[in-house]
Amino acid sequence: MSATPHSSSAQAENADLPSDRKADKADLARNDRPENRLAVRLAFLVAGFGVACWAPLVPFARLRLGIDEGALGALLLCLGLGSVSAMVMAGLISARYGTKPLIIASGLGMALVLPLLSVLSTPLSLGLALAAFGACLGSLDVAMNVNAVEVEKQSGQPLMSGFHALYSVGGFAGAGFMTLLLSLEFEPLHATLLGAVLMAAAVVMAWPYLLITSSSSQGPLFVAPRGIVLLLAALAGVTFLVEGAILDWSALLMTSTGRVSTAQGGLGFMLFSVAMTVGRFTGDALVSRLGDRTTLVTGGLIGALGVAIVILAPVAAIAAVGFVMVGLGASNLVPVLFRRAGQQTAMPPAFAVAAVTTTGYAGVLLGPALIGFVAHGVGLSNAFWLLGGLLCLVPLCAGRVAR
């Protein structure tokens, strides 16, 4: 069968491979097992589901503890600090012992801690539980991405976008599941127990089929990011920063300019999220046709153009198109960056994926604060121009990343 014009870029990348690399890819493809794909998809689903189950519990936690917004913000920071701290160690554990034990332990850990978040009644105990929950989430995030990179290598075709789409699906499912149960007047403890059972069941289902990744007891305890990994981590931080800023500031941008009412402020992020999920479900086929470099170039440019449309749109309908473009453009940037982190040879893949994950998560945490600081000085609309400029770094660096 003749190749289609759309697949020329990806074929060109493969054509440049040495004969031994082509043979390696053929050998890996023969070892591809569909159950390995299903298992890592379940891991992504559990991660998204678990963290989304916590979001509807935040008002209950504030009421139970009787604290103000400042104290609540400090508690929420415990979740992020726990995640980032664990991500650094997760690279070491994955390199030493493989990713399968870490995925199982961290997935079950999230299920065990989730019900505690609905009953602990002191700031100290809830803060410690949130840090533990975040540590399990961060460890799972690193381990499942390392495992996904290896599964993708064995398949010989792009799969990372589809894996990350399952995280988004888990987020929708977790938030919807918890909101539904709480709306039906379930006690928070009972609702979280049901959610924990579903999470644990998914981990147990994945357990026998998770790919056993390579491990070595002779490796270093820590490897500082270097070479191409520094660039990959920086671009991941930029992409996640944009996502965090859209989450926290898009509603205020839309309402402060009078384009929508306060009640409709969340529509922008909703459209962004739906577009990102759709983009990731279709991303693997797109990347296999275009190749990594073209995907990064087009995705970054579409996302940056979408940000510009959101800022300049005179009415809500046009701004909605901009949010969709940002979601579609950004949807496959992170999966490509994770793939490249697993393929590079500057440092062990487990440490590289941990570095990219940690920097990306830091972008989510720091992005909203950065936008708030800039907005205080120059206005929120001008601060959003910063997001568009940062996204332009992705196509500018695409050649180096995909080299």
UniProtKB/TrEMBL annotation:
Residues 1-30 are annotated as: Disordered. The keyword Membrane applies. Residues 18-30 have a biased composition (Basic and acidic residues). It is a multi-pass membrane protein. PROSITE patterns: MFS. It is found in: Membrane. The chain crosses the membrane at residues 38-58, 70-95, 102-120, 126-144, 165-184, 190-211, 223-242, 262-282, 294-312, 318-338, 350-371, 383-402. GO terms for molecular function: transmembrane transporter activity. Keywords: Membrane, Transmembrane, Transmembrane helix. InterPro entries: MFS_dom, MFS_trans_sf, MFS_Transporter. GO terms for cellular component: membrane. Residues 1-12 have a biased composition (Polar residues). This is MFS transporter. It comes from Roseateles depolymerans.
